[in-house]
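Our example copied in:
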Amino acid sequence: MRSNMPFAVLICSLTSALCLSFPDRVALGSDNTGSSDPAADVRPAPPRNLSAIQQDRRVLLRWEAPEPANEITTYRIYRLRGSNDSFLPMATCPAGQLSYLVEKLEPGSTYYFAVTSETGSGLESDSLSPVIQVKEAQNGKLEIKRTLETGTGWDNIPPEAPGNFSGRIVAPGKYLLEWSASQSADVLYYQLYYSATSPPPIGPENLIAKLRQGAVSFLHIRTPKVGGAHYAVIAVDRQDNLSRPALYSEQ
């Protein structure tokens, strides 16, 4: 079950966001059958100088593109209502759009808005733009102020696990692994793990592949060993949250 994260988890910072790379990929050798490499990319910086102005009973959010911006294809707008809720996705905008009109604000409610950047490969900035607080008074006037220069840790909700994980021998030493995609919309890639003795713990020593979102099969080429073949697959989302593992064993 997904749970909400309090607003207090956000970390204030007056520095700009760092561009972080994905974890190192293990050497796959012949096990790698056409999977793309998430480790080749870095995360973009978040948008700069988020601001807001009132338009009637609505609020217009504006921001500036980060530098560099050539890889950015999408901006994601997040909203938090109250002080003990979670930042949840509200809308997306194409890279050429640097504003968004927020409607349907409830009188007396306090909202927080922030924006992230995303590249065409699905990598999202791991910190937020400046955070804007908007409170609508009973008379319809908006109180607008910036509360944070940036924030991290706003998304700790794990994605749904892949389903229907299975495998079959297609040739000596070759296992075809198949699964159904995670139902979560923010999955970025899948990680596959292998052990010859028991269901593999989720860790780098058992990692055999990282596959882009959309992949639902993998051909594992290996030397047959006593004890069978044991596999796990997990989904990883844009903020590196891990799903529960789906397991498959061939005795």
About this structure: The longest strand covers residues 72-81. The CA atoms of residues 176 and 219 lie 5 Å apart. The mean pLDDT is 81. The chain has no helices and 15 strands.
